[in-house]
Request: fold
Amino acid sequence: MNNIAEYVDQTAKLIDLPIDPEYREGVISNLEKIAVLAQLITEFPLTYEIEIAPVFDPSFPPK
Reply:
């Protein structure tokens, strides 16, 4: 994503979501941070030997 500010403006317009000018820079800043985190996740190398968990149980501690 090259221009996050433009993306925020166009997406808000597309989904009819008004963003107050006082919050716009914060929205852009947060989306920039999210993009950095997403890049870390999508670039993480995975091997074909990794198996998908059959069941996801978010409870902690395990039952």
User: Anything to note?
Assistant: The helical segments are 4-14, 21-42. The longest helix spans residues 21-42. The radius of gyration is 18 Å. The CA atoms of residues 56 and 62 lie 11 Å apart.
